[in-house]
Amino acid sequence: MRIEGSGALVAGGASGLGAATARRLHAAGATVVICDLNAEKGEALAAELGERARFAAANVTDADAVQAAVESAAEADGGLRISVCCAGIGWAQRTASKNGAHDLELFSNVVTVNLIGTFNLLRLAAAAMNANEPDAGGERGVCINTASIAAFDGQIGQVAYSASKGGIVGLTLPAARDLASRGIRVVTIAPGTFDTPLLGALPEAARAELGRQIPFPSRLGEPDEFAALACHVVTNPMLNGETIRLDGALRMPPR
Questions:
Q1: Does the active-site annotation cover 161?
Q2: Coil vs helix vs strand at 196
Q3: pTM
Q4: Backbone angles phi, psi at 137, to 5 degrees
Q5: What letters, b where the CB count within 10 A reaches 16 and e where it falls short, cover 160-172?
Q6: How far, CA to CA in Å, does 199 sit from each of 87, 109, 207, 220, 254?
Q7: Predicted confidence (pLDDT) per residue in 107-140, tens digit
Q8: Taking a C-beta distance cutoff of 8 angstroms, is the pair 10, 25 a contact?
């Protein structure tokens, strides 16, 4: 799938991994719709990128708002051909502790945003891609999801987060099989510990320690490295139905 001339939608695109991906796709020639709850950051990024970039306010769990963002991205000359979901939230709490059971509403909220929100974008973007004319290789589009290595080795307190990200890993292959006859690929990236705004609030010593835990390179991942992989996924037609760990060989310990 060619990036140049394609319409792209990046959910969670106002900061972190999503913003880096929006920049990379735009630099490669895509028309990019940045979808996020943070209008201030999203509009600022769209203004920074300039032509071929615009912002659409949306919560990924809101079907109508996501549909509007999808339709906006589909207005690009090449149609919506690239969808990337980087939207997500986290929460740390044990299944049960001396303080009682895990808060069920908070567990549900994490799963709703991370898993159901990801599927909401996936289903609507894929439906829009169905209308595209296939390219020379028979492709109509590519959908990229974001999981986490917590899907495989979640730590203490990550039961909600790991469950939500494990669900994304689980839907990747059947979704790819569902959409194969239409020439739409589905791939998930599972990043490790990356230098995102979430970690930016930690003291520098804590950030450095997190980086030292990674075998090689022994540092936090850079958002542009995630973006580079996302762009490679778009352009490599044999990547389909797969979850790719992007973690520097990190396997998370229990805590």
A1: yes
A2: coil
A3: 0.95
A4: -95, 5
A5: bbbbbbbbbbebb
A6: 16, 21, 7, 10, 19
A7: 999 999 999 999 999 999 999 999 999 999 999 9
A8: yes
